[in-house]
Amino acid sequence: MTSVRSALSTALPPIRAAVSRMKQEMVRRELENCHLLAGIWCHGLTVRQLQALRGSLPPTAKLIVAKNTLVEKAIAGTRWEPLQPCAKGMNAWLFVHSDEIPPSLKPCRDFQRDFKLALNDFTGAVFEGRLYGPDDFQALETMPTRMESYAYFLGCLQTPAVSLLSVLESPEKGSDQAAEGAAAVATSEK
């Protein structure tokens, strides 16, 4: 007769493997429409602090606490693979599902400043296939949003058009002034 303990111990590995596969699939689903994946070192954070951080994120960003090996398996062979060296220690993973990167990173920085957590910094991120280390995050945090890029682009398109119009209008003004001057000279000669 088998004991209950031996029956449970043989049943647990398949259950653990199924849960691991399920979590790995969850991470893969998050990666599908992801624009940025960032690791945040979360050593010593309480559940309440993580919940506060999740609540402050925009709807297009999601923070997941997952085992590093699980994330490494999920990103293997994808465009997120350069992030594997950052999967060390206790990490939370930030998935940003829009191209509005700075508004998604700002709540993390605000959280870090408000709770005085200087050590809980970004471990790394991948954006457009490039790995950003902890020292490179300033470039991601200061990049323009989509609306700022559109405004700049439209300004670049508008400036030559305005210059062209001013050049086209200036001869008319010059010829109008010359005609007025000639008319004034003609009336003074009479």
Q: Layout of helices and strands, plus pairs?
A:
Elements lengths: L3 H29 L3 E6 L5 H10 L4 E5 L2 H8 L15 E6 L4 H14 L7 E6 L2 E3 L4 H6 L3 H44 L1
Antiparallel strand pairs: 1-3, 1-4, 2-3, 4-5
Helix pairs in contact: 1-3
Can you walk through the features of this model?
- With 190 residues, the chain is α+β, with helices and mostly antiparallel strands.
- The chain is 58% helix and 14% strand.
- The chain contains six helices and five strands; from the N terminus they run H-E-H-E-H-E-H-E-E-H-H.
- It has a five-stranded antiparallel β-sheet with strand order 2-3-1-4-5, with no helix packed on it.
- Strand 4 (122-127) and strand 5 (130-132) form a beta hairpin.
- Helix 1 (4-32) crosses helix 3.
- The longest helix has 44 residues, at 146-189.
- It starts with a helix and ends with a helix.
- The model has no long low-confidence stretch (mean pLDDT 80).
**Structural class label:** alpha+beta
* Alpha plus pi helix count: 6
Strand order of the largest sheet: 2-3-1-4-5
Mean pLDDT: 80
- What percent of the residues sit in helical stretches (DSSP H or I)? 55-70%
Specify Rg, calculated over alpha carbons: 30 Å
Distance between the termini: 133 Å
* Uncertain residue segments: none
Order of SSEs, N→C? HEHEHEHEEHH
Share of residues in strands: 5-15%
Question: What is the count of β-strands?
Answer: 5
Identify the overall geometry. elongated
Largest sheet, if any? 5 strands, antiparallel
Quick tags:
alpha+beta; 5-stranded antiparallel beta sheet; 58% helix; elongated
